[in-house]
Amino acid sequence: MSTTPLIPRTAGPRPGGRSARVQAAIHQAVRELLAEAPRDSLTVPAVATRAGVTPSTIYRRWGDLGQLLADVAVETLRPEATPEDTGSYQGDLLAWLEQYRDEMSSGPGRAMLRDVLGAGTENTGKCALYCTQQLDAIHERAAARGESTLATEAVLDGVVAPMMYRILFAAQAPTNEDVASWLDALLQAPRHST
Amino acid sequence: MSTTPLIPRTAGPRPGGRSARVQAAIHQAVRELLAEAPRDSLTVPAVATRAGVTPSTIYRRWGDLGQLLADVAVETLRPEATPEDTGSYQGDLLAWLEQYRDEMSSGPGRAMLRDVLGAGTENTGKCALYCTQQLDAIHERAAARGESTLATEAVLDGVVAPMMYRILFAAQAPTNEDVASWLDALLQAPRHST
């Protein structure tokens, strides 16, 4: 295993001022239109009209509709809260992993993953970053409690990865029992780090 | 774990006759055009002209360019040979997994994954099926040699899944050392099946 982190722990600065307000209006227009009609019927001109901008503003900033959809999807994936504190490391991990499984294997979760993965690499990195940050937060809370912990990368490889592989590629979605069994195997393996 | 296989082991019947020849001509046109110009510049009319069909033939069969690209990508992912016979189960697994890692993390491999994952579920299922069939073939050869083996699903969860997660989401691609280390952990775990 390498010693540098697989996923950079910091995201870039968020845009501010007028361009941020324009971006927010366009994101909001996409979310509204997605709630009203099938995703296949979405067009750049329709988003522009709803947001009160010209289509060229969208093409200039995002290139095409796919990139815009990926941007909106990854913004929706940004966690809104720190992971639930259940009082123990194993409990925190299981609660967060079950919630993540539930969200990602839902219809809207799959559509977001499709948008993010279809568009390219910057957004997939952000998606992994959010996941890593939540696992890091669980790790730090457990360390503060004095519990022995796993490396975040081990949880990514051992639980998050098979969960996502099944969601993306397999005919059967992963269950909470699968998640619990992958986590058990990991916690029982003789590879704990702190 | 469930007792039904995660990935169906059989693909549907392949189309025959005239429609198969039309499909082959259109696939070939896509591959030629992808070799000549950037993927973003590809259009349905250009593919139609090259293949000698009308654009409506393409729209009727595939719906849109994304579905056609996904179809071509998944056809390219179809394995051309049985996995190399190195003389042992561990050797066969390692050789195939390293080759798969090499192919999937390459530029063309990532582009294919993007096309397949961006388009929807039928093609992702085929992608997983090809992988499962190759692992099954390695499994059966080892069983015929009398070697103890892992369940194919354990190799998918323990090695293929973290490999694909890193290729799709992480900043750093997986290395052959990662693959060997995931496989070692799996072979040492007390969960062998036959």
Automatic annotation (TrEMBL), chains A, B:
InterPro entries: Homeodomain-like_sf, HTH-type_TetR-like_transc_reg, HTH_TetR, Tet_transcr_reg_TetR-rel_C_sf, TetR_C. SUPFAM superfamilies: Homeodomain-like, Tetracyclin repressor-like, C-terminal domain. GO terms for molecular function: DNA-binding transcription factor activity; transcription cis-regulatory region binding. Keywords: DNA-binding, Transcription, Transcription regulation. Residues 43-62 bind DNA. Residues 20-80 form the HTH tetR-type domain. It comes from the Bacteria. The keyword Nucleotide-binding does not apply. Coiled coil: none annotated. PROSITE patterns: HTH_TETR_2 (PS50977). This is TetR family transcriptional regulator. It comes from Luteibacter yeojuensis.
